[in-house]
Amino acid sequence: MGTLDGRVAIVPGSGRGIGREVALQLAELGAKVVVNDLDAGPADEVVAEIKAAGGEAVACAGSVTEAGFAQRFVGTAIDTYGDLHIIINNAGYTWDAVIQKMTEEQFDAMIDVHLKAPWRILKEAAEFIRVKSKGEAQEGNLIVRKVVNISSISGTRGNAGQTNYSSAKAAVVGLSKTLAKEWGRYNVAVNSVAFGFVETRLTEATDQKKIIEIEGKEIPVGVPVQNVAASKMMIPMGRAGTPREAAGAVVALCLPQSDYISGQLIEVTGGL
Predict the structure, then answer these.
(1) Is residue 226 part of a domain?
(2) Each residue's pLDDT tens digit in the chain (272 positions)?
(3) How far is CA 153 from CA 44, 88, 104, 192, 194, in A?
(4) How crowded is residue 82: how many other Cβ atoms within 10 Å of its Cβ?
(5) Which residues lie closer than 8 Å to 230 by C-beta, 6 or more apart?
(6) What is the C-alpha separation between 132 and 9, in angstroms, rounded?
(7) 93 catalytic, yes or no?
(8) CB within 8 Å of 217: residues ≥ 6 apart
(9) Which of 29, 64, 28, 63 is nearest to 46 (CA)?
(10) Which candidate, 32, 147, 180, 270, has a CA 20 to 30 Å from the CA of 186?
């Protein structure tokens, strides 16, 4: 039996990168996972990988910022598996510029995807969680649900060129600490994880201009090779983290062994 057998998890942004690793690790431990990506293809691929390994998963593609997404996403978990135990708010991207060159569109986009979208998902799940926890308490059945919201050390320490992203990620920590106080009575442990330098397609070392399209916007990705090398020199462990390592910290907060950890911020930085 897996440690998370019978648990149902939703993971926004789990078609690629860290989110993909979170979904795979949760499924490996027995959780049933609702996989999401902006595009259907990556989400379907992760679902197929989970099923091929003997797990259970279903895809719910689409943008976390679109109207009605939270209802559709949470509803997919409840309609398909009849419950919801784990919420990992992971979806997002960066859109950098120094403040004098940043547009309001850039600022609003980061707030929408990193802060408002998680808030909407949590708000949508609130009534289901309240009713379920009340029933479980009446039956004498203690089930601790988990929320892990993804922050960044850009939010906890600041980072030049990211007033939009840093503001949103700082707010995620406040959201998590407040929700831990509101949902503690429902036996929900709410924490946040702030990543340092983790190697993904967004942080890939490159001196070539790379662009990805997100909801009609052209977003530059990648980090100049010289900057990557300098960043690694500052990290005590001397390297960037891997998506699997980053996901491991998130999954650890979903295990029964961490049921009494709530309202905390965990930094995953290689000692930085």
Answers:
(1) no
(2) 799 999 999 999 999 999 999 999 999 999 999 999 999 999 999 999 999 999 999 999 999 999 999 999 999 999 999 999 999 999 999 999 999 999 999 999 999 999 999 999 999 999 999 999 999 999 999 999 999 999 999 999 999 999 999 999 999 999 999 999 999 999 999 999 999 999 887 676 566 666 777 777 777 766 666 776 778 888 999 999 999 999 999 999 999 999 999 999 999 999 98
(3) 31, 18, 23, 11, 5
(4) 9
(5) none
(6) 15
(7) no
(8) 95, 109
(9) 28
(10) 32
For residue 212, being part of any structural domain is answered with: no
- Number of structural domains in the chain: 1
User: Which range of residues forms the domain containing residue 33?
Assistant: 8-197+243-266
Q: Is residue 236 part of a domain?
A: no
Check 81, 93, 165, 260 and give the catalytic one: 165
| SS3 assignment for 151-167 | EEHHHHHCCCCEHHHHH
End-to-end CA gap in the chain: 37
Q: Which element (helix H / strand E) includes 47?
A: helix 40-52
Q: What CATH number corresponds to the domain at position 181?
A: 3.40.50.720
CA quadruple 36, 42, 48, 49: dihedral, nearest 10: -100
Q: At what angle do helices 243-252 and 17-28 cross, to 10 degrees?
A: 50
Residue 110 located in a structural domain: yes
Handedness of CA 253, 244, 25, 91 (dihedral sign): positive
What is the gyration radius of the CA atoms in the chain, in angstroms? 18
- Cut 0.70: pTM above it: yes
